[in-house]
């Protein structure tokens, strides 16, 4: 693992922000940090970035305890935006780049690359207060990655972006991942989680309640519902091993949704249908990450202790 937290606990007065939180973030992957508001995600990020310290537990980077100097190899874009509205955009970006350790020459070179990449060169000498929220987001994104850190942490990075610019930022994250960067993405945008993340951890009520590879997590929550498209418009098969949920005509086809019982395999279900009908296509419905999120955070909240569920990370 590139980054690990082990049994991290953090208490603020009468509020338990984190309780024995352990996550593992593989190198060169995008890791989704999920959870409702107030679950403890931002507190965990602040501990990873050494803004605050845990009451107990620890953070490991590349197998050793994190150190003060590790912050220079981290890019962090917090949810709260912090640009100086009266400064010019270029001056602001240069100032933040210098804070991150770049020389004036290197900072200018990198800023030119990124401003052209994001198509905002025409705003270089405009004041920050003239920028839209989305444009300010682009400047903050650039300031987060400008010093080429190995670990990038984005807290709600798509807030304020229209779909076109959100897609641009998603593509940049994927490109950075291809370059070997490790990314932690804290977001409520479950669609982005499915598009971008390799692995996730879901924090609920200060604890990790779900962690693992995104596909494995979705598969583990599958409802055993299958869709079949048949040629023709007749389907009258009844069998105790499945329940017909819907049957809808579609041109010369008929679309079925069936729920498989636990006493047969998906292959056995497919054979039942294939043996009696001409199947054009079929697939299994997997829950979205939104479905998984809602199901997990709304399950019996009266449990005093929720045992984490883990799946192998890839």
Radius of gyration: 24 Å
Our count of helices gives 9
Query: What's the arrangement of strands in the largest beta sheet?
Result: 6-7-8-3-9-10-15
Structural class: alpha/beta
Q: What about the largest sheet?
A: 7 strands, mixed
The overall number of domains is 2
Low-confidence stretches: none
Query: Which class of the largest domain in CATH terms?
Result: Alpha Beta
| General form | globular
The number of strands is 15
Whole-number mean pLDDT: 91
Distance between the termini: 11 Å
| Estimated helix fraction | 25-40%
Structure description:
By secondary structure, the protein is α/β, with parallel strands linked by helices. It has two domains: 3-219, Rossmann fold, CATH 3.40.50; 224-285. 31% of the residues lie in helices and 30% in strands. It contains nine helices and 15 strands. The protein has helices spanning 41-48, 89-99, 104-117, 133-145, 163-178, 190-196, 214-220, 266-276, 289-297; strands spanning 3-12, 15-25, 30-34, 56-61, 64-65, 74-77, 151-155, 182-186, 199-204, 207-213, 225-231, 242-250, 253-260, 279-285, 309-310. The chain has a seven-stranded mixed sheet with strand order 6-7-8-3-9-10-15, with helices on both faces. Helix 2 (89-99) runs parallel beside helix 4 (133-145). The longest helix has 16 residues, at 163-178. 32% of the residues are buried.
